[in-house]
Amino acid sequence: MKKLRNIGISAHIDAGKTTLSERILFYAGRIHRMHEIRSEVGATLDSDPIEKRKGITIRSAATRLNWSEHTIQLVDTPGHVDFTIEVERTLRVMEGAILVVCAVGGVQPQTIHIDRQMRRYSVSRIAYINKLDRPGADYLRVVSELRNQLGMPAQLLQVLVSRADGPSGLLDLVAPALITFEGKYGEHVVRHPVDVELREVLRTNRIRLIESLAELDDSIADLYLKEVEPSSDELQSAIRRQVLRHRFVPVFLGSALQNFGVQPLLDGVCAFLPGPEDRSVELTRLNDGPEGTEKKYAERDDRVMASADVNAPFVAYVFKLLEDRFGLIAFLRIYQGRLLRGDTIFNMRTGSKMKVGRLLSIHADQLSDLENAVAGDIVAMAGLDCISGDTFTDGRLRVCAAPFHVPEPVISIAIEPERSADANRLSAVLGRFVREDPTLRIRRDRESGQLLLDGMGELHLSVYLEKLREEVNCPVKSGQPEVAYREQITRRAAFDVLHKKQTGSGQGEYARLIGFIEPMESAEGEFEFRNATTGGLLTKEYASGSERGFREQMQSGMLIGAPVRKLRVVITDAANHAVDSSELAFRNCARECFRQAYMHALPVAMEPQMHVQITVPPDFQSSVMVILNQRKALIENVSVERQETRIEASVPLRLMFGFATPLRSVSRGHGQFSMQFKRYAQMHVQNVNRLSD
Known about the structure:
Helix 6 packs across helix 7 and helix 12 (540-554) crosses helix 13. The longest helix is centred in the first third of the chain and has 19 residues, at 196-214. By secondary structure, this protein is α+β, with helices and mostly antiparallel strands. The chain starts with a strand and ends with a helix. The chain folds into five domains: 4-278, Rossmann fold, CATH 3.40.50; 281-401, Translation factors (Elongation Factor Tu (Ef-tu), domain 3, Beta Barrel); 411-484, Alpha-Beta Plaits; 487-602, 2-Layer Sandwich (Ribosomal Protein S5, domain 2); 606-692, Alpha-Beta Plaits (2-Layer Sandwich). The chain is 26% helix and 34% strand.
């Protein structure tokens, strides 16, 4: 267990993350030949045909390898923001991660987003500055950006030694030496004594490293005050202690494409990142078990801390589902205990019991049978009836792990099968896709009857349309993407509704609700229902029906027909009838209350605003500004670094469709852009009127 490392590799798109993963597999002996992402074969972990054709990572892929007497379970994740759910669920089950940053591009929008995800799940990380062979590479600037833009306690453990034609070696600041990478593929790592001309560079940077550690670690501080230089082992131990406390982020350097600097990074993974024993996972108790069974593992009355003990009661978490030749495959992280083929396990969400049939180890798209797995392992199972986020136990503990964060989709398209005979099969296939990808949603528009597919972006939706056509031979016709508009009220409005209905025979309907609706602040959630009545005027059953009625009516507002967000409902008074009142009556009354008060609350239409980052050569900056102004962009920042201009802007999503074509045109193919959801913002009155019409 002390020699096990579970790590995810994450980065902004095109930072070289998958190329790095390919080198890691090669140097660890997991593969015997390296392939480039855009080659005919494609990278090992990009096994999907669409990934190979597009040259990007679309879904996370796991593998297991050995390095320096350690076992590393590695998951490569996509860099494009459209597939951010793959990063979310990977980091949810990892103790450590490698954040890959481009030495030219530096900290980019998705880098910032990934940093937030790592913080959300308290993942310890190390940074790898890649592409040091590229013109304009500046690793010192990137380290400064990590500190200033991300607030990351980043500290170099290496210094680059360069020649005129590119990087030639690395100065190791922890165990002083000059490291070079020799052989056809850089497979031979050679440590040389430091030459005289480099000793001052080594001494200056090593002192800086020791001083930064002395501010954090008591043992190094004691040595520093005594003017005693720490040994390499003492430095390494101190770095690991602070990495585990999230107070120190080691920075490694290299160029994965040039087979430079990868092996020391793997050494750093083994030396500094935590293993399963170094991090406890908090579980929520569902109910009390037999005396003595759960008490041993309980920290608080309603919490259980999972331990990486193979003899503890079995607990595992489903973080990913994938349809495979074996059927539906569930990827599990085992938090504690042991699992054997043939064991009986329980789904804590449904209470269902099932037998372990096929237990599988994972290497990209290759699955092989296992007899058993233990705490800390990442494995796959076939035949499980579950969804992403389910917790399985052996029945001795009734607990569940916290779900991972699922971002809301921002665009949608209308689809219909090209062949009418495919209608039923289309529904089944889309159901499978939604089960695999929680950010993909299917819904039927109540007014138009259209089947709508919601997703995280144009690329996200286009990938699934390709899957429908190529993988399952179910081509569809699609309409132009529709933006996920919202409505939001701007002031408080009261309601007082008596819902009274008599059928002439049998029970009627009677309910009265008095109260108000009001807007919520951005940080308070999307909806809140408060029962402020006294004396039992609104029972639990009637309150539940009232809340349900308001929620149902919020699905389509009265301004442009979009769902309503940021709404608080407060019930101050109510009345019921001994015979005619029911949950249904209060549900219908709540719907009438919403309709009565909503327009008096002065609703406004809201639209998604995207944070857009564009990089172009300086010569094309003015042309790009013109097309941004045409899209009503709010320019937030313009910076020029070396031979690259970076423009950051906030732009309505509805105006960003098809942006790639004019950007390539005005920049002669040199411009690149990325965008991610920023916030909802109020729409202009003219646009609201157009949508209403």
